[in-house]
Write a structure and sequence with these properties.
By secondary structure, the protein is α/β, with parallel strands linked by helices. 45% of the residues lie in helices and 17% in strands. Strand 8 and strand 9 form a beta hairpin. The two termini are 30 Å apart.
Length: 291
């Protein structure tokens, strides 16, 4: 597998995206459960048939671009153009030096978003990203080594990983979270997402309440024909709940309201480019047991 991935890593982005579109349709054709889930989730969100079909190819492109991103030498910058929108907001939040939580949905090139941030802003304010370790050992090793870059640390979705993120925020650094990832049982609440209850993480809002960090949404659009990417940073349209009296962040106070606020913010972003959201992701599945 690794020789193939290394070969792909040397191919141009347009070639990878062309192969990825084919890969996306193969996965759609060969997996009835994936096909049904993608259709159901997209229909629930009011996504048109044309955009739903486009999302099939975009999901494949996301996978196909990973070797080029992950396997380049550690000291080498992203080799494809990355443009930023919302820099004024991002720089203002960084200037406050109180820590920053960036929420990035399963949309577009979310792997590029973190590495692009580290390259542009990491020297000023390093980033730690939360990830769920892959089950296959070879893929888990690849993820851990490929994602860790200068000014970009990784934290597993475990109790030690949460402590690592908390320490990073207290140092005034930046966290990257996938807020539409289904957390383990006991680590989330049920909140509406496109009209259906979805088990939603409480971690992001609790970290903000506990540390006083800023929060924003960031997502990376994949441009057509291999022309690169655009990273967009947006504010939350609604504020999160205030910490309980005494400054504590524990308990469930505000969890349901905050999860709903975050889900509404994600919905607004997803509606901008619905074809680039991973509608095949099992967003509405029950949480797994916490281990």
């Amino acid at each position: 597998m690794m020789p193939l991935l290394r070969w792909l890593a040397r191919r141009p982005l347009w070639f990878l995206h062309a192969c990825g579109a084919v890969l996306g349709w193969l996965a759609y054709a060969l997996s009835p459960s994936y096909r049904a889930r993608l259709r159901e989730n997209a229909a629930r969100a009011g996504v048109s048939v044309a955009e739903r079909r486009a999302s099939v190819a975009e999901a494949g492109r996301m996978v196909a671009e990973l070797p080029r991103l992950w396997l380049r030498p550690r000291g080498r910058a992203i080799e494809d153009p990355v443009r930023w929108e919302g820099e004024t907001l991002l720089e203002r939040l960084l200037d406050e030096r109180r820590g920053l939580v960036l929420l990035t949905p399963h949309m577009g090139s979310f792997e590029v978003a973190a590495q692009a941030y580290a390259e542009r802003y990491g020297a000023r304010q390093p980033m730690t990203v939360l990830y769920r370790p892959a089950r296959k050992p070879w893929l888990r090793t690849l993820e851990e080594t490929a994602r860790a870059r200068p000014a970009l640390a990784t934290a597993p979705a475990t109790l030690p990983g949460v402590r690592q993120m908390l320490r990073a925020l207290k140092r005034g650094e930046t966290l990257g979270l996938l807020p539409d990832q289904v957390p383990p049982e006991g680590q989330g609440v049920w909140a509406p997402f496109f009209g259906r209850p979805a088990y939603t993480m409480t971690l992001a809002a609790r970290l903000v309440r506990q540390t006083g960090a800023a929060i924003a949404v960031a997502w990376c659009e994949r441009l057509p024909r291999g022309r690169g990417y655009v990273v967009r940073v947006l504010p939350l349209a609604e504020g999160l709940s205030a910490p309980p009296a005494g400054g504590a962040a524990g308990g469930t106070a505000g969890d349901e309201a905050d999860a709903a606020v975050i889900n509404r913010a994600l919905e607004a972003v997803i509606r901008q480019r619905p074809a680039q959201y991973l509608w095949g992701y099992a967003r509405y599945k029950p949480p797994r047991a916490y281990t």
